[in-house]
């Protein structure tokens, strides 16, 4: 049974990788139709990975992360349309709130002030650097930055508390989410840069895939290398 679930997990991870690479390729070469199909499909595959995960332990964590990923999917679809950017921002804001709730329900509120100062210090510097280009989105972006940084703080805290491979993946995953959103903010509010689209998508799908795989391992009750 364990071998079957591991095989299924490996298959989903391969499908996610292939779909993500194809989405990035078609996005880079401006095949809008295929990109608009493959972008949500990749996130759907990440959600499917968790839907097929064993639920031996920490069922609430698995369920909450799955719901958060559904809001990622909603955000993906909304961000396909420039006029829906703010709605996409709200969808991802809800994602980060749900991730935060999931992490706190799982192991409690984490209070390491060193990691707090590092993460919020970096976020603050980036926000004030981007501030001149934010315009009417100043307040929504400020709220978003605080929420995603709080989420990353709690996600990193899981590893600092547990010190095992599954939770290390969770920490890397939430940091990749911060990186992806930072790249998106720079490209949108500061200056577009070479290969910004592929880099944003690659770090985004890496982040949610790592979070999903970490949750899979935790739900299975293992602490092994994922």
UniProtKB/TrEMBL annotation:
It is found in: Membrane. Keywords: Membrane, Transmembrane, Transmembrane helix. InterPro entries: TMEM86B-like. Its main location: membrane. Coiled coil: none annotated. One of its GO terms (molecular function) is hydrolase activity. It comes from the Bacteria. Belongs to the TMEM86 family. This is Lysoplasmalogenase. It comes from Flagellimonas sediminis. The lineage of its organism: Bacteria, Pseudomonadati, Bacteroidota, Flavobacteriia, Flavobacteriales.
